Amino acid sequence: MDNANLTQEIKRIAREKSALILAHNYQTEDVQDIADHTGDSLELARIAARNDARIIVFCGVHFMAESAHMLSPEKTVLLPDPDAGCPMADMADAEDVLRLRDEHPDAAVVTYINSSAAVKAVSDVCCTSSNAVAIVKAIANDSIIFVPDRNLGSYVQRFTEQRIIPWNGFCPTHERFTIEELERAKRRHPDAIVMVHPECRPEVVDRADEVLSTGKMVAFAQSISGRNIIVGTEVGMLHKLKTAAPANEYILAAPGFVCPNMKKITLKKIYDSLVSESPIITVDADVASRAVRCLERMLELS
Ligand code: 13P
Ligand code: SF4
């Protein structure tokens, strides 16, 4: 089947089976175009929590599908490629978080949504890149163990007097983006606005005009027009921006800005997944019952 036929068939089967297709902003163009909704982690978690579909096809990575399942346990949540993981989420495990908790008994644990359900289950509240600063500020504790992204943790520290105790995790895709590459892009486009994701290294964040989640990048781009914008995040974002805010020009900050896991989802895998209603993502009920509190608390606070 070619892409046009696959697209038609996916839409037909999704309608027949009452399936909702959600795609993260880093998905490929053809996957974004077929989705019912595209968005950042927070936007997609909110949609997953409130809709009446029978099936959710999550075009993203494993922790996103896990979160959708925990927020909407009555639905079947499909991840078209079960190997689409997030290496940063794999950098934290529950035993080590519990050990750190013991070392800092007065600290609250704020966990980035890019984490496993097991880690969420031993945390106090979740956050995403879009609400991390607000969530930390909403917590009364003077000390915050921030898991697993050290770069997002260091970004949050800029806005609060609370002591952030960072976990030593990072996103390999954003960590690879260097200050030298950013300076080169700025020299080539001296008039451009620079927007970067808070998963970038602190020295990159220092040189950016805007530091935003992928959803907030869209809102920012829609608020201006006729500008050149250097985009310091995953390449899939360019399609999202061109579609949602076509009045600007977008320049990818560095050629290597690709998340190989996000790119594992293809139209063919979405089709197969819808037909077979697999692979289904589930979470152990005991873990889910504790982890979902952390997600729900985030949704209440943001
Ligand atoms: P957003 O929530 O900003 O879309 O980020 C998700 C992510 O995985 C970034 O690498
Ligand atoms: Fe994980 Fe980074 Fe890929 Fe986002 S871009 S899913 S943080 S590896």
Task: Please describe the topology of this protein.
Elements: H1 3-16, E1 19-24, H2 29-34, E2 37-39, H3 41-49, E3 55-59, H4 62-71, E4 76-78, H5 94-103, E5 108-112, H6 117-121, E6 125-127, H7 132-138, E7 143-147, H8 150-157, E8 163-166, H9 172-175, H10 179-188, E9 193-196, H11 202-206, E10 210-211, H12 214-222, E11 228-232, H13 236-244, E12 249-252, H14 267-276, H15 285-301
Parallel strand pairs: 1-2, 1-3, 3-4, 5-6, 5-7, 7-8, 9-10, 9-11, 11-12
Helix pairs in contact: 1-14, 3-4, 12-13
The protein binds 1,3-dihydroxyacetonephosphate (13P) and iron/sulfur cluster (SF4).
Q: How big a fraction of the residues is strand?
A: 15-25%
> How many E strands?
12
**What is the number of helices?**
15
Query: Which CATH first-tier class of the largest domain would you pick?
Result: Alpha Beta
Q: What is the SS-derived class?
A: alpha/beta
CATH architecture grouping of the largest domain: 3-Layer(aba) Sandwich
Number of domains: 3
Give the ordered list of helices and strands. Answer: HEHEHEHEHEHEHEHEHHEHEHEHEHH
Bound molecules: 1,3-dihydroxyacetonephosphate, iron/sulfur cluster
Oligomer: single chain
Portion of residues within helices:
40-55%
Radius of gyration: 19 Å
Major beta sheet summary = 4 strands, parallel
